[in-house]
Design brief:
Helices cover 71% and strands 0% of the residues. The protein is mostly helical. It has one domain. The longest helix is centred in the first third of the chain and has 23 residues. The C terminus is likely disordered.
Length: 141
């Protein structure tokens, strides 16, 4: 039986499927813009900001080029565009791995706070369009 954690991992993979760094950077920005409002409506911006900041810090341990300071800007949009610029500066492989690491860390921590099922549900809802080409049976438990 498949876990919601592996379902979540496949959702991230499906949403990030691309091979060009510019496309990866744009896809990552779009995914954060789709996910953030749903999460902020549940955990508030005061919950989202530290979770995003911690996730960046943890992702930068494996991908040092991701050492961004998300607190330098008060606008959530700017934090995501800073990440987008950082990803654009990388080759396709590094951009993809960094983006994948950031989403995975962020969603792992979120799942530890609100639970696997709610995290997966929010992810599916926010990224419905991004993962619509993946057969529904691939995301079921």
């Amino acid at each position: 039986m498949e876990t919601t954690e592996s379902t979540r991992g496949r959702l991230i993979e499906a949403a990030l499927t691309t091979s060009h760094p510019q496309t990866m950077a744009d896809a990552t920005l779009r995914l954060w813009e789709q996910l953030a409002p749903s999460l902020i409506s549940i955990i508030g911006e005061g919950g989202f900001k530290p979770l995003y900041k911690r996730s960046l810090r943890l992702a930068a341990k494996e991908h040092p080029w991701m050492a961004l300071d998300p607190t330098k800007s008060s606008a959530i949009q700017q934090r995501f565009t800073d990440l987008q610029a950082c990803l654009r500066a990388q080759d396709a492989t590094h951009a993809r791995l960094g983006s994948l690491a950031l989403f995975t860390i962020f969603l792992d921590v979120l799942a530890s706070l609100i639970g696997e099922e709610l995290t997966t549900y929010l992810l599916q809802s926010a990224w419905r369009k991004e993962t619509s080409e993946t057969p529904a049976k691939d995301f079921q438990k």
